[in-house]
Amino acid sequence: MTTKEKFRNTFSYLHASSEIHEEVRQMTSQEQDMKLRKYRKRGSRIAAAVLVATLMIGMGVFAAGHYFGILDFAGRAGRSIPESAAEQIVINPDMDQNQNNAIVDLQVREALCDSESIALVCELSAREKGKYLLVPEDALPEDNMSNWTALSDQKAGEYAEEHKLTMINTGCIISNMEKLGIFEQSMDFRSVSDDVMDIFITCGVQTDVKNKKVEITATARQAGTEDVMRLSASMVLQDVGTTKTIHYEAEAGPQKANSGEGLFFKIQRADVIQTDLGTYVDIYFTDENVTLGGEDNDLEFRIVDSAGKAVDSFGGSGVKADGDGYRTRIMLNKINPGEELNIEAYSIDSGSRYGLFKFKKAEN
Questions:
Q1: pTM as predicted
Q2: DSSP state, 87?
Q3: Whose CB has fewer CB within 10 Å in the chain, the N or C terminal residue?
């Protein structure tokens, strides 16, 4: 089946499933390693955080050789991949891999790259079959396997004991974050079988390089131990899509973005970047309270339509210092923003609105 055919057929069998959003790991640019953090703890949106969102799927119900592709992951998460972008998905991209004594093999099943983002499906499979149970990197023995499989009322530790399997925590991340301008990544997990795990990595990038060298680090750790096995690989991904940037400026009048008295922030401008894959909104702002890498940043933005309804976002890039202020990115399914762009500012902690700010397309 071609990628185009797969795109057309994928969504015919997908059904809505609950998503359990669980945070998170932080990775320092010096170590380029993942540090374990507890489930359900909200990490800083500004730090280089990895959001773990595990999805419900079935185990052992697919034929040998099946894997979950980009379209599978995207469909279940409610993300729309335009057909023009789906045709650019690379199947089994060539990669260089370091061989070591890790108990798992790493294979990149699919890759999709544009000027603003990268999406990968990495598959980890146990080298010795029938011996291991692969689980997400910070899953605990007492966690229910419905978090990443279709099994209900089955705890990971109990399942492993019942089937005489050794529980292995697995993860995968793009490790050369700094070179690619990556500030935040997400990972979604789906089990293909007991000893095969597919991991969907998505992130925004800030680089003008068309041919991006992507370095990947996979990890495997026996549950309850501290020893982490690492497997590294690299590949070159080519951005073959088109990119267009539209500038927006604050409208004159009472809703001008910089006119809010008493507010601790000011929205300076916004850029909308259109690619074959999606729409990316860069918001430039100042914030008197922001502390890069801190936990107390309360300000967040979302795009709303003309009726005031929030436009669904599938990710962001965190916050980066930019001149005298900051820049944050909102990643959207492909939309046509039109002549006006509505940005709503709100509190992460309370959900209360700080205000709605209207922008108009700048004249060329």
A1: 0.75
A2: T
A3: C
